Amino acid sequence: MKKIALLLLPVLLLTLASCADTPYSKGQQGAGFGAAGGALIGQALGRNTEATLIGAAVGTMLGYIVGNEMDKYDRQELNQAYEYTPSGQSTSWQNPDNGNSYQVTPQPAYTQPSRPQQPCRQAEILATIDGRTEKTYTTACRNQQGQWVLQN
């Protein structure tokens, strides 16, 4: 069992190193770093395979939660844009944690014939991430509680 743990740790660290330049979510990146840190702490404290695996599991969960919180600010700002920004006007913000900036221009609300009680809005988003600006379009529709929910 100890051989498995010793083989697992380098694989985990190599996987984390490859995540640095990939477009994973902050939650996924946080989970990866949390798993590695948790495994190291578990091994240091318990000095056995079980402690290493428990440390990795706890670290994964905590890392995902922390990483996901970093994205929550931007989702809140985007929801504010859908809720309060007049159609055709832009609103912008900069994330204080990562420096990414966004400019959002919502379009008029509309309803789909299949769901006449559910208003939707499209928005153009200019996102500047790591110095690169990209344009994308999103659509959000109101759920039954009246909140805007991004559509896939």
Please describe what this structure looks like:
- The chain has 152 residues and is of the alpha+beta class.
- It folds into two domains: 2-71, no CATH class; 87-150.
- The protein contains three helices and six strands, in the order αααββββββ.
- β3 (110-112) and β4 (115-129) form a beta hairpin.
- α1 runs antiparallel to α2.
- The model is unreliable at 1-23 and 65-70 (pLDDT under 50).
Structure described in brief:
With 152 residues, this protein is α+β, with helices and mostly antiparallel strands. The protein is 49% helix and 28% strand.
Low-confidence segments? 1-23, 65-70
Count the E strands: 6
User: How many H/I helical runs?
Assistant: 3
Calculate Rg over CA atoms.
Answer: 21 Å
- Secondary structure: helix percent: 40-55%
Largest sheet: 6 strands, antiparallel
N to C succession of SSEs: HHHEEEEEE
Q: Please, how many domains?
A: 2
Strand content: 25-35%
